[in-house]
Structures are given as structure tokens and as C-alpha cells.
Automatic annotation (TrEMBL):
Spans through the membrane: 807-825, 854-873, 921-939, 951-968, 980-1005, 1096-1119
Pfam families, alphabetized: Ion_trans, LSDAT_euk, TRPM2
Name the UniProt record assigns to this protein: Transient receptor potential cation channel subfamily M member 3
Keywords: Ion channel, Ion transport, Membrane, Transmembrane, Transmembrane helix, Transport
Source organism per UniProt: Petrolisthes manimaculis
Length: 1371
């Protein structure tokens, strides 16, 4: 054993210097086995694709570094790890037929002396001198020297360097040299040689392991733990890429153990869940048998890959600590050349024979092959493994790794119980998986009989020890010798003395093994008094186990010191652990005290550092001009861009200068801290956290609307290529839109007027915008279409009027006296004394309402169109006329209207206001019409451009008349149709982009055959117009049926090519003269008419049939989409129209200039002359407080309805029923335990019948039994008192609530009753029979009742399942 087991570990100081975390890690892999792509930089494939060489200077440097790392790794392995070899053959027994040495090898299997001398890395003499001495003095003398040296080095191995130097004295002997005739001893006959087995194992079985090879190394059982830990961290890189937070050591049955069915699923799921939640290591025996094989199967099922820099490694690290002498085919693992890492192909054999070696398990990722010098037999290495676990658990400052360890016991025998005893001695908590058999069930049974005294000790009574011994004889049948059973009893009793570190998990009754594993670690740590509840809470947060924190940590301390949870809250927020955030808030953390400017600034900077290339980082870099540290003023600037308005003094105060000069700025708090965290969560893409934070905000309605608008703005700010993030933003925008609309609907159901008040309440953080304006900013049509929002919009439309028919409003604009007719117009009682309005007030209310302004301005615009049409048709002269002058003045007043609309937009910057104003299609119409009108006016002033001025005036008429469609938005039927028309314009543009390709292709091809005499030399504007007409317009008209077939025949005229002519001499007669005529190539367009006709056929097929039908299909889709949401669209456009006319002046153009002058004057008076300002906050204080209380109550009601709907959901009902069925099925599976009880009862009866009455006198027997009954009652009374004290001092693991009877506990109680019911030594035959019969009847009745309960539960579940299936069939 290592002498440093209970002290501080020596510092891990390998031959190599410590590896810097920022430098490339040392790669302990076989270069020959590594894929070539693994050594390339990520840019290598790209370089090859673009024509560059694969190799770069960085690639070559990396290859050199890999080679150097391999050499350094080899140096470390060979210099720090040894193996044990037997020096001399000594027969094990004279009577044994097999000529086996005491080490387990045959004589011929021992290494020759010459080979031993060659492999010794250090001796008392040089190797050459030893060989000379062997020739002179003989082999025996040299062997004595080797044994003498080995006797020193073997005892000093495993200690630190200082101890090693103090004990070694250059080969000088410190004790008597043993003779060659001395009996075999491991201290004298085993020597340490350099290890010869290290490298990687590739398991060739198809169903075993993964494609990644497993690493292994052979080492001695006395290897210093510091060297192994250095191997783990610096060479095997087990701490990368994520540091493990737990090590789970699994021990148990080795030969015949196997989990099947539900138990296997429970174990696999729980183990893998615990490993993944903590990035834990798994430590096992590493062999392909028993519990180690079950662990391997679980690892295989849950294994995953992670990227470590440029390498891919397995996420679950499963370490096997295997005895070297018990490995099947272990000789295959020996390196052929110790100067390189071995790459071994290993076949796993499933057959397990008694007392034979066993194969390695292929699902393990790393192997420590522990060599104790013995071969071909199993020697327990539990001591080595326990020391390794202790070293892993030791603090880093003391040379360990600081990783907590938990031991998991499944089944197991005497060795497993010894392992548990050693682990508990070293303060390693143990989880006992009851229900797996043998040792685990025995320890669980013993734990149920252990009492907790008020002094804090765990004790077991003598009577219980007797029962435990009887249980051992039944459970541990392989322990045939009494001394072994007594040893087993001692192991179990000692384990029970550390019961505070033992956690019992019943695999038949529970499924959350991971919870018990993590809880065991917490209880184990709390038991030693070194870890406070806060440290336990840190571990639970690190493991992301809020269930453990909620059930075990927070109940132990109801109140927490102020500020103790703040650091944990920061971690929970950054890691988006919503359940922990909720528990921190519930258990005393005050968010108003926690969230300060410093805290929020830290959260933003940490979020950017965690994801350097995130969307938030890029946005903040723009607002901060690429600074490394972001302040809240940068967030404020970002909010102003995406949300148009943002006002919050703490944001403006947090600047670089202020933080440097005034530290108190960092301690400023926020009015609504949950709202600030909500914005942070949205920007940092912590969406689940955002939904929880929204529930706790002061104004949930406005926060939900602002959140949806913020998601919409972030969605717009991203490019189209970021499809994943855009989809995420869009989905969360829909979520908050639904939350806002559903919550507002709940408020409307509770109180209509208060819900309208919430809609109209302005939020100072967003520049005094109300919820409807925020909804319009985010295009939130769902909220605007809710009844509460529509009630507010309707009130704004007829502001102050309860009844105002549309036609009556139109007439009242010209006949003001109609507004005083109560049958037509009805006003709200908003007078000075809450009574009717006065005559003047009614007049003012009517003409200031948006509905009155709408009809008045619409009538004015119709008059303007009539005047404009008259001027264009009849009064457009070269000289300016009165009508044209009036039109020009009218246009100038419209310009003032548009400027006023721009000024009323929500954005705080001019650019933002223009952007918001231009987002409306009608404002675009206005800018086009006004611009075209002034262009037309400028052109008509000059004689040369007068004609173009008339054309511009005429075209502008169409634009003005299209602007008249804005009036149709008031109508429910016509409003959505305008949206359809606007959407179709975009689709037509896309269609034209497709059509122009076919038009150009057909037009140019056809004209090239029909017009053969076109010449570039005669090119002019006119010819360009003709070409454009022939190429573009002719195919366009042909698509609509104007085929122009007469033009497709071409001109009957030949066109000859002079350069193609060749002279031809004809034969002449005597009476005729000979002449030479040229032979030229001539063309006629009529010859190509058939080709043009064929092209026209294909063009019409594509244009008329395919493209036009495609356009019709697109229009149909747009129509269906808009028609489906026509109500929402109309309500949204109606709100925009109301808001537009709410800001319009009362006077119509051109008289509106008067009101604009009055507004400017009033603004100047407020800024300069007004002395007393109206305190609106004081005036609205009571109303705002009422709305705040109402909103909180509505939020509670809304959340309660959500919880209720989730509980009543069919899926959850089926899930709960399924859990209940599983639990009942587990109780049914315990029928075997019932049968075992019946067997015990039968055994009692048989024993009672065989007892003789004359063994003890009857009167003595009676008094003895009475005395034992009195002692039994006294013991029960003491047990009851101890149980009461136990409840005061120790809290056990809370059991799951259930409506069924806990049959498992009842059966345990019955088993205890069976043991207690066995007759005492002096009972007569009649008394024995009577006592046994009575107890048997009681137990039988109880068992029958339990079986009846199981039957009733099964019947009830069956009926409920039928109901669920019938309901599902109906739905």
C-alpha cells in the first residue's frame, strides 16, 4: 500500500514541465494509428479545393510538434511506470501436478536472466560488469546481487522523491541478503522493470466499443498516485474539454451478475444521466463480466462525441482498473517495440470459465493494467483502486484532482463489501442499489436495522446482528465457512457505522438513480462537517440538479444570509438554469438588491465572452465602436436603434468616464429588475429564462409586447443566411405575442375598463409609448385584434362619443348643428362634474375625434382630386392659371402634413422617424405623388420640357387616384383586399423577373431571323425604340393573344453577303459574248418563318400555360393567406389609420397651416414662458396603482389557469397513469418476495414440529419466554425512542408520494416479523405449535390483504386505461 494514502499527496512533478492551458496540449496517441486528416489544419481542405498545396508552414510546425509530443509522452511513460516480473522459479506445491511457480507462471514462461539484465533500467553495477561477474562468479552470485537491489527498490517504490533518495544508497544493502534456498516471497522474488505495455486498443468486435481506440498502460500496484494523476491530466487529457465534477466508482458482482428488463433500463438511464449532468468519470474493474459488463453496455448506449480543439473524443470517460495477471490474451498488449506506442487489435470473448482469465470490456475508454506480479489468478486490487479514488478526491492544493467520488454497489460478494468498507473509511459515500441481490441487498437490509443514537452514532443491536447473520447464511450462499460469514458480518456492521454516508436506492421502487448518486455525495460531504449547505448548493447548481436543491438543501436552511445567494444567482443566469433562478427567488434572494448597474454590466460582458461571435456581441460592438468592455450606455444606444425609444437613467449614467470617476454609479438600482434581466435574456438568447423572468415583471403586458417587438427587431437585423437564429427569433416572437394576447384576454375577462387602462398605460422606459404603439412597432397583429385592444381603439376612433354613425359624421362636417341631436350623436358624460358636456365641449370633442378628421380630410382630398383632374383636362396652359396655382398651394400644405407625420413617429432620431414613416405603403404613395408633382411643375416652366411636364402631370393623376384607396381601409370588406393587392405587387415583380428571361430569349431569337438587314451603322434613338418594341413588346403582346402572325412571315426581300461572292466564267458560243457573273450567298427572311413559328409555339406554352398559371397560383396563395387573417389585418390597418388621423390637424388643407403655426407657438410658450407644469404622475398615481394591483392579480390568475390546463392535458394524464402502472407493476414483481416469506413460514413450522418437549422443563420454558417477551417489549420501546430522536437529528431521503400502499416497506416489515417469529430454544412443542400457528395466521392474512390491494389497483388502472383509450378514439 502507498504510505501516502491518508496524508497529502506528493506534488505531481513529471519529467516534463507543466503544460500551459493556452499552449497546445501534449497528444498521447499513436501517430501511425491517427487519421491523416486529424493532423491537418481546418483550412487544408479549402486550400486544396482552390488549387493551393495542402501543406502549409503551420501544418509542418504542427507535425513537428506532434512528433515532439509523442517523444515526450514516451519518455514520461517509460520513466514513471514499471511492471513486475518474477526472478526465479519456485514450485508452488510439491504435490501439485502443474509445474506452476508461486507467481502463477510455468518455468519456461519466466524471463531469462540475460533478458532481465538487459531490461533493468538501473542496477548497482553497469550491465557490462555484471555480465563479466556472471562469467567469473556464476549465475547464482549475480542473482543474489539483483535480489539485494530489488529488495531495496521494491520497498521504496510509491513514495515521493525525497523518501526514495533517503532510502536508496546506490545499491548498498540495508538487510540480510536472502539465500537461493529461501521460500518464494513477493518482496524478494519480484522486481520492477520498465513497463512494456502501453498504447491504444482497437476492439474488433462489431457490437463492442466505438471506432475510437481505448488508451492503456501497464503499471505496478505500488505506483505513486501523483504519477497516475499526471498521466490523467497532462497526457490522457481526461480533464479536457470539460472538467469532470464527479467520479462514479462501480463495484459489485463479477461472475454471474446481470441486469435485465426494467432494472437494466433504470440503471442505464440513471447512470448515464448522472454522468452527463456532471461530466463524470466512471471507474470499474474493466473486465467483460458481471457489473463491469453492465456498466459497459450503459456507456455504449449513452456514449457521445465532443470536440477537443481539433480532435474528436468520447464524452463519457470510462476507466477500467484491471489486474494485469487476470487479463485474457494479455500478451497481445505487450509492445513489440517499446520506443513507439502500440496499436493493438483486441477481440473480446464473452465466454467466462471458472478460475480462468477474462477479456477486457470494449466499452471502456481508458485502462490501467495493474501489475502485482501474480499471473493467471484473480488478486483483488481494491486497495490500489481505493487509493486512486482517494487521490482523485484529494484537493488540488494537496496534490489531488479535487474531484468528488461516489461508490456504487450492485449485488457483489465479500470483496465488494470490503471495497465499501475501505471507501467509507476514506469518507467516500456509497450508494447501495437494493434489489440487485447478494451484497447490495444484505447491506440495505442491515441499514434498515441500524439505529441512530442521540449522540450521533449508528449502532446495531445484538438481536439484529443475529438476524443479520441468518440473512448472510441465506443470501451469501457461497460463504460456506463460518469464519467467512463472520468476516462478512464484520464488513457489513462496519459499513453501517457510517450509515450517514450510505444511500439506499431500491431499483424495484424508484427510477431516478442519478438523483440518489448526487444526493449521496451531498450527504457524504455534509456528514464530515467540512462542507456547508452553501457548498452543497454550489454542487447542485454545478450538476444542474434543482430537484436535489429543492428537496434537501433549501429545507435544511429556510433563511439564508443576505448576499449569500448572489454569486450563485449570477451563475444560474449565465448558464440559463431557470429552476435554480426560481428557487433562489423563492428562498430569499431580493432581485431589487441583487441587480445593480455593476451586476447587469457584468452579465452583458460575460454573455459576450461566453459566445464571442454571438449576435449580441456584434450589435454591442457597433454601438461601442469595437470596445472590449461594454457599458450600459452601449446597451442603451442599441435599444434606441432596435426599439426606436429607450429611456432609463441608470443606463445613461453607466459610461466609461462615470465608472472611472464615480464608483457609486455601479450601485444604482433599477425600478423593475426583472424587466432589465428580461431584456438581457432576450439579447443573449436565453429564451427559457426570458419566459420565466417575464412572469415576475412589474408590468407583464407591456413587457411581453416589448419582448415580441425586440425579437422582431433582432430578426430583421440578421441577414437571410442566419436561418437558424432567425427561426429562433421568430419562434420566440410568436411565443411572446401569444403570451401578451392571452394575458390581455384574461384581463379583459376579469375587468373590461381596467384591461383598457392597461392597454393605454404609457411606459416611461420606452419613451411613453403605450402597448398598442409597441405592438405596432413589432407588427403584433394578435394583440391589436384582442377585444380589449379593440375596445380601446374604438374608444379612440370616436373619442368622447358613445354613438356616432359614419354617414351622420360625414354630414355633420358640413352641418355642425346635427351633433346636438341626441338621437344621432351620444356623448360620454365627461363634463366638469361628471355630467353631460356643454355645447362648446361637444363641438370640440366632435371635431377633434379621429373619425371626424377622417371624413373631413377625405372629403378635402376628393375635392383636391377633382380640382387636379380639372386642371389636367381643361386648364393646363403654357401660362400659369388660377387652378394650377391652387393645386400647387394645396400640394405645399400636403407637404406640411407629411412633415408633421414624420415628426410624430416613435423614433428619437430623424433617421429613425423617416424610416418608420416610410414603412407605410401609403406614405410611399405620398412621397411619389408629391415628388412627381413638383417635378412636373419644374418641367412645365421651361419651353423645351413643357411636353414632359404635361406627361408627368398626367402620370401623377394615376398616383393620386391610387392614394384614394386609403379610404377603403375603414370598410371591413375592402380593407383586407387592399392588403392582398399590395402583396400581389411584390409577387408580380418576382413573376416579371422570370418572364423577362423568356421574353428576351424569344424576342431576340425571332427578330434575328425576321429582320436580316439591320445594321449597327444606322443605330439611333429611333432605331433603339424600334428594336425595343420588336424584342420586348411584341413577345409581351403575343403572350396575351395578340399574335401578329402577319409579321412572322418576314419581308420578301433577299439580302446578299458581298464577301461571300466568287467569280464564275460561263461557256460562250461564237455568236454570243462571254461575261462573268458573281455567285453570292443570299438570304430571305421568308425562309425562316417556319422556325419562328416553332419558337412561338414553345414560347406560348411556357408563357401562357406555365408562367401565367404559376402567377395565378401565387395570387391564390396570397389571397388565401390574407383572407385567413383578414380580421387581424383589418384591425391592424384600422389602428394605423386611427393613429394617423389622431395626429392630423382639425383644419383641412390648405387651412391646416394655421394650426401648424399655432402648434409651433404653443411649443415655444411651453419652453420659454410657462412657469407651472402639470404634475401628471401625481394626478394618475391612484389610477396607476390600481392598474398595477389589478395586473398582478390577473397574472396570478393567468398562471394558475396555465398550470391547471397542463395538469388536465391528455398527454400529462396518460403520463401520470403510465407512472402509476409502472409503480404497480413493480409491486406485482415483488411476488417472489411473498413466496420467499411463505417458504420462511413453512420452515418455521417444520422446525417447530421437529423440536422435542423434554429438552427443557415446561415451567422454565414458560418463564424464559415471558422474560424474552419482556425484553422484546423493552427493546421495541427503546427502538421507538431512538426513532423519535432519529427524526430530530437526521433527515432521511424523502420518499415519493403515492396514493397506493407502500407494499415494499410492508414486505420488509413482514420479513423482519418472520425472523422474529422463530421459536426460542426452550419452548415446548405445544407452545411452539401454537405460537407459530398464530403468527403464521397473522402474516398470512396480511399477505392476502396486500395481494388484494394489488389486485384492486390493477383493476382500477385497467378501467382508467379503457376510459383514456375511448377518449382518444373519440378525439
Amino acid at each position: 500500500m502507498n504510505s501516502q494514502a491518508h496524508g497529502a499527496l506528493p506534488s505531481r512533478s513529471p519529467l516534463l514541465p507543466p503544460v500551459d492551458s493556452r499552449s497546445p496540449r501534449l497528444l498521447w496517441v499513436d501517430q501511425a494509428a491517427r487519421p491523416r486528416s486529424a493532423t491537418m489544419t481546418p483550412a487544408t481542405p479549402t486550400r486544396k479545393k482552390i488549387g493551393l498545396k495542402r501543406g502549409t508552414s503551420a501544418t509542418k510546425e504542427k507535425q513537428v510538434m506532434d512528433e515532439r509530443s509523442t517523444d515526450l509522452n514516451l519518455t514520461y511513460i517509460k520513466s514513471h511506470f514499471k511492471r513486475k516480473e518474477c526472478l526465479r522459479y519456485v514450485k508452488r506445491s510439491a504435490t501439485e501436478e502443474k509445474m506452476m511457480c508461486c507467481c502463477g507462471l510455468h518455468k519456461e514462461q519466466h524471463l531469462p536472466l540475460s533478458l532481465l539484465l538487459h531490461q533493468l533500467h538501473q542496477t548497482s553495477r553497469p550491465q557490462s560488469s555484471i555480465m563479466e561477474v556472471m562469467d567469473v562468479e556464476g549465475e547464482d552470485v549475480v542473482l543474489n546481487h539483483i535480489l539485494a537491489y530489488n529488495s531495496v527498490t521494491s520497498r521504496t517504490a510509491g513514495r515521493n522523491n525525497n523518501n526514495r533518495e533517503s532510502r536508496e544508497d546506490n545499491g548498498q544493502l540495508s538487510h540480510q541478503i536472502p539465500s537461493l534456498e529461501q521460500n518464494w516471497s513477493s518482496e524478494t522474488h519480484l522486481t520492477n522493470l520498465p513497463t512494456n505495455a502501453f498504447g491504444t486498443i482497437t476492439f474488433i468486435n462489431e457490437t463492442t466499443g466505438s471506432n475510437k481506440p481505448a488508451k492503456y498502460v501497464r503499471l505496478t500496484s505500488d505506483t505513486p498516485m501523483c504519477d497516475i494523476l499526471t498521466l490523467f491530466s497532462d497526457y490522457w487529457h481526461l480533464m479536457d474539454p470539460n472538467r469532470p465534477q464527479l467520479a462514479i466508482s462501480v463495484t459489485g458482482g463479477a461472475k454471474n451478475f446481470r441486469l435485465d428488463g426494467k432494472k437494466k433500463a433504470t440503471f442505464t438511464t440513471g447512470l448515464i444521466k448522472a454522468v452527463k449532468s456532471t461530466n463524470a468519470w466512471i471507474l470499474t474493474g474493466g473486465m467483460n463480466v458481471g457489473v463491469m459488463r453492465s456498466v459497459g453496455e450503459a456507456v455504449n448506449q449513452g456514449q457521445y462525441m465532443v470536440k477537443e480543439k481539433e480532435h474528436v473524443v468520447r464524452g463519457i470517460r470510462c476507466l477500467g482498473v484491471v489486474p494485469w495477471g487476470y487479463i485474457r490474451n494479455g500478451e497481445d498488449l505487450v509492445n513489440k517495440d517499446t520506443n513507439v506506442f502500440a496499436s493493438v487489435r483486441y477481440k473480446v470473448e464473452d465466454e467466462v470459465e471458472h478460475h480462468e482469465t477474462v477479456s477486457l470490456n470494449g466499452d471502456h475508454t481508458h485502462f490501467l493494467l495493474v501489475d502485482d506480479g501474480f499471473r493467471n489468478k484473480y488478486n483483488s486490487i481494491d486497495g490500489f483502486r481505493t487509493e486512486l479514488e482517494e487521490a482523485i478526491m484529494e484537493e488540488e492544493l494537496r496534490g489531488g484532482l479535487g474531484i468528488p467520488v461516489v461508490l456504487l454497489l450492485l449485488e457483489g460478494g465479500l470483496n465488494s463489501l470490503l471495497k465499501c468498507k475501505l471507501a467509507l473509511r476514506r469518507r467516500i459515500p456509497v450508494v447501495v442499489v437494493a434489489g440487485t441481490g447478494r451484497g447490495a441487498d444484505l447491506l440495505a437490509y442491515a441499514a434498515s436495522m441500524t439505529c441512530h443514537t442521540p449522540s450521533g452514532r449508528y449502532v446495531m443491536k445484538k438481536a439484529h446482528r443475529t438476524q443479520l447473520m441468518q440473512r448472510i447464511s441465506i443470501t451469501m450462499k457461497e460463504l460456506t465457512r463460518p469464519d467467512l460469514r463472520q468476516l462478512c458480518l464484520e464488513y457489513v456492521v462496519e459499513c453501517c457505522t457510517h450509515l450517514n454516508m450510505v444511500t439506499i436506492f431500491d431499483i424495484n421502487s424508484h427510477e431516478d438513480l442519478d438523483r440518489y448518486i448526487l444526493y449521496a455525495l451531498l450527504t457524504g460531504k455534509s456528514g464530515d462537517g467540512e462542507t456547508s449547505l452553501l457548498d452543497q448548493l454550489k454542487l447542485a447548481l454545478l450538476w444542474n440538479r434543482p430537484d436535489i436543491a429543492e428537496s434537501h438543501i433549501f429545507p435544511a436552511q429556510p433563511t439564508w444570509p443576505s448576499g449569500s445567494l448572489e454569486d450563485l444567482m449570477t451563475i444560474a443566469l449565465l448558464e440559463e438554469k431557470v429552476d435554480f433562478v426560481q428557487q433562489f427567488v423563492v428562498n430569499g434572494l431580493v432581485m431589487a438588491d441583487y441587480l445593480k448597474v455593476n451586476t447587469l454590466r457584468h452579465l452583458y460582458n460575460e454573455a459576450c465572452q461566453m459566445t464571442p461571435n454571438s449576435h449580441l456581441t456584434r450589435l454591442l460592438q457597433r454601438s461601442s465602436h469595437n470596445q472590449n468592455v461594454y457599458y450600459l450606455v452601449h446597451v442603451h444606444q442599441l435599444m434606441e436603434v432596435v426599439m426606436r425609444k429607450h429611456k432609463d437613467p441608470p443606463y445613461l449614467a453607466d459610461t466609461l468616464e462615470a465608472a472611472t470617476t464615480d464608483p457609486m454609479v455601479g450601485y444604482l438600482t433599477f425600478q423593475d429588475p426583472y424587466q432589465e434581466l428580461l431584456l438581457w435574456a432576450i439579447l443573449s438568447r436565453r429564451n427559457n429564462l426570458a419566459q420565466y423572468l417575464w412572469q415576475r415583471t412589474e408590468s407583464p403586458l407591456s413587457c411581453a409586447v416589448a419582448a415580441s417587438a425586440l425579437y422582431k427587431a433582432l430578426w430583421i437585423s440578421l441577414g437571410a443566411k442566419n436561418t437558424d437564429i432567425r427561426s429562433e427569433y421568430w419562434a420566440n416572437m410568436d411565443v411572446f405575442e401569444k403570451l401578451a394576447s392571452d394575458f390581455l384576454q384574461e384581463c379583459y375577462n376579469l375587468n373590461i375598463m381596467n384591461s383598457m387602462g392597461l392597454v393605454e398605460r404609457r411606459n416611461g422606459k420606452w419613451g411613453d409609448l403605450d402597448c398598442l404603439e409597441l405592438a405596432m412597432l413589432g407588427n403584433n397583429r394578435k394583440l391589436i385584434s384582442t377585444p380589449a385592444a379593440q375596445a380601446s381603439i374604438e374608444f379612440s376612433w370616436r373619442r368622447g362619443m358613445m354613438r356616432a354613425p359614419n354617414f351622420a359624421v360625414f354630414l355633420a362636417n358640413f352641418l355642425p348643428l346635427l351633433i346636438y341631436l341626441p338621437r344621432i350623436f351620444r356623448f360620454q358624460k365627461l363634463g366638469d362634474n361628471r355630467d353631460d358636456l356643454t355645447t362648446l365641449q361637444k363641438f370640440k370633442v366632435f371635431y377633434m375625434s379621429p373619425i371626424s378628421k377622417f371624413y373631413l380630410h377625405s372629403t378635402c382630398f376628393v375635392l383636391f382630386l377633382l380640382l387636379y383632374s380639372y386642371v389636367v383636362l381643361f386648364d393646363f396652359k403654357y401660362e400659369m392659371t388660377i387652378g394650377e396655382t391652387m393645386v400647387l398651394v394645396w400640394m405645399i400644405t400636403y407637404v406640411l402634413d407629411e412633415l408633421a407625420e414624420i415628426a410624430s413617429e416613435q423614433a428619437s432620431t430623424i433617421r429613425g422617424k423617416i424610416s418608420d414613416w416610410s414603412s407605410s405603403v401609403w406614405n410611399r404613395f405620398d412621397i411619389v405623388s408629391i415628388s412627381l408633382a413638383f417635378i412636373a411643375f419644374g418641367l412645365r416652366l421651361w419651353r423645351k420640357t413643357f411636353v414632359w411636364g404635361r406627361i408627368a402631370y398626367s402620370i401623377n393623376t394615376t398616383v393620386f387616384y391610387c392614394r384614394l384607396l386609403r379610404i377603403y381601409h375603414v370598410n371591413y370588406h375592402l380593407g383586407p383586399k387592399l392588403v392582398i393587392f399590395y402583396r400581389m405587387i411584390t409577387e408580380v415583380a418576382v413573376f416579371l423577373g422570370l418572364l423577362i428571361i423568356f421574353i428576351l430569349g424569344y424576342g431576340i431569337a425571332s427578330q434575328s431571323l425576321l429582320n436580316l438587314d439591320r445594321n449597327y451603322d444606322s443605330f439611333s434613338i429611333v432605331s433603339l425604340a424600334n428594336i425595343t418594341h420588336d424584342v420586348l413588346l411584341t413577345p409581351y403582346w403575343q403572350m396575351y393573344g395578340e399574335l401578329l402572325l402577319d409579321q412572322l412571315h418576314g419581308v420578301d426581300q433577299e439580302v446578299c453577303h458581298p464577301t461571300s461572292c466568287s467569280p464564275v466564267t460561263t461557256t460562250c458560243t461564237i455568236n454570243t459574248t462571254c461575261n462573268t457573273q458573281p455567285d453570292c450567298l443570299c438570304e430571305n427572311s421568308k425562309d425562316y418563318s417556319w422556325v419562328v413559328n416553332m419558337m412561338l409555339i414553345f414560347y406560348l406554352i411556357i408563357g401562357n400555360i406555365m408562367l401565367l398559371n404559376l402567377l395565378i397560383a401565387i395570387f391564390t396563395y396570397v389571397f388565401d393567406e390574407v383572407q385567413e387573417n383578414s380580421m387581424e389585418i383589418w384591425k391592424y390597418e384600422m389602428f394605423r389609420l386611427i393613429r394617423e388621423y389622431d395626429h392630423k390637424p382639425i383644419f383641412i388643407p390648405p387651412f391646416n397651416i394655421i394650426e401648424y403655426l399655432w402648434r409651433i407657438g404653443k411649443k415655444m410658450w411651453k419652453l420659454t414662458c410657462r412657469k407651472k407644469r402639470e404634475n401628471l404622475e401625481e394626478y394618475m398615481k391612484e389610477s396607476l396603482e390600481t392598474l398595477r394591483i389589478f395586473e398582478k392579480e390577473a397574472m396570478q390568475t393567468y398562471l394558475a389557469k396555465i398550470d391547471q390546463s397542463e395538469e388536465l392535458a391528455l398527454y400529462n394524464s396518460i403520463k401520470r397513469m403510465s407512472e402509476k402502472i409502472d409503480k404497480i407493476s413493480k409491486y406485482i414483481d415483488q411476488k417472489e418476495d411473498l413466496e420467499e416469506i411463505e417458504d420462511d413460514l413453512e420452515w418455521i413450522m417444520n422446525e417447530a414440529k421437529e423440536m422435542k418437549p423434554e429438552q427443557v422443563p415446561l415451567h422454565h420454558n414458560t418463564s424464559s419466554c415471558q422474560q424474552e417477551d419482556e425484553e422484546e417489549e423493552k427493546e421495541k420501546k427503546d427502538e421507538k425512542e431512538e426513532d423519535d430522536n432519529e427524526e430530530k437529528h437526521v433527515g432521511f431521503l424523502s420518499e415519493e408520494e403515492s396514493s397506493n400502499v407502500d407494499i415494499g416497506l410492508e414486505l420488509t416489515h413482514l420479513q423482519r416479523r418472520v425472523v422474529e417469529s422463530r421459536p426460542c430454544s426452550g419452548v415446548s412443542r405445544a407452545g411452539t405449535a401454537t405460537l407459530s400457528r398464530l403468527k403464521t395466521e397473522v402474516l398470512t392474512r396480511r399477505i392476502d390483504s396486500l395481494q388484494q390491494e394489488v389486485h384492486d389497483n390493477r383493476k382500477e388502472v385497467t378501467g382508467l386505461l379503457h376510459k383514456i383509450l375511448n377518449k382518444m378514439n373519440k378525439t
